[in-house]
Amino acid sequence: MRILLLLLISISGFAQTEVRLQILDSIGAPPELFLAGDFNGWQAGDEKYHFVNQRLIIDSLPDIIEFKVVGKSWAEVEATKEGKPIPNRKRIIRPGATIDLEILGWEKPPKQEPLAENIHSHLNEKDLVYRGQSKALWVYLPASYKLESKKVYPVLYLMDGQNLFLSLEGSAVKWQVGKSLDSLKLDFIVVGIEHGGVERINELSPYPNPKYGGGEADSLLIFIQKPVQAFLRKRYRISEKREQNFIGGSSLGGLFAMNAVLKANENFGGALVFSPSYWFNPELALYASRYSQKKRTFVYQLMGGQEGSDPAKNIALVKDMATILEASEQPWVCKTKIVAKGQHSESFWQQEFPEAILWLNSKMLENEGEE
Prior knowledge:
Helix content is about 30%, strand content about 25%. By secondary structure, the protein is α/β, with parallel strands linked by helices. α2 packs across α8 (about 345-370). The chain has two domains: about 10-105, Immunoglobulins (Immunoglobulin-like); about 120-370, Rossmann fold. It contains eight helices and 18 strands.
């Protein structure tokens, strides 16, 4: 028995991966450092990946990982020595290996431009308190909004609101949703919903992941359907028609959007599902295969060919979801786009957003014409 125990301990130690940091520029360095990547849903501040004395021991990792070194949030992230963003790191993981990383510098927050006149922020609103903290909202209004006083508008709710209009966290390259919509001249209201920082995994994943936790997306979904929509409809001319209410997001936000359009289909007529983290909750595909709804629903899925540690698997999961929806007797209208060189980044989603929302807008108009 003692020999077996020693053998198990030896095997366990061999399976561990050690990550060591060499910080070449400590100016601007966060007081605490973490590893964030595709193995934990890109969660900053995850205590399971907390460096102690610039050293981290990890019990198990996938064969290939994509990651960055960050602080408690994506406002603090490694960069070039000039403070410019760097691509996600990638490594092949071999049991018992040591990964040595040189940190050249830290991203410098870009000069923050004020919000455009047609983008309104709602911060610290007492009507938007979720689990003890107010959820910030950013609302984009189309140019025609102030010219047509009686018109009501379709709306797209997007998760991870910090990444849509302003460079509030992480990379200076954001979705630039406002600029894209201005150029498209679409009569759409877009609402960015703030994520909960270290609670992001909990908020955006519908089921607990055995390794990373989470599983509280349905609670946030109810919050969006009730307090958030009620708050916005009192202040803006937002359509209450299901066929003109949509939801979207990227990564875990994409997972959340698909979950929302399945479980709150009476409220949302479609979804933009960018780079969804289906691997995090494979249960959602099973739910979709058993789901029954009777109203036409539009789903636009996007995945890059260079996303994550296993791009082929991510692409397969997206195609599997499309197959499930299209095989259903229910009236799903689904488009799935795979971009060979697409990477898991805001710049990729920014590039693809105009085409996606134009597709959603065209399907909405077609649907209205058939009613």
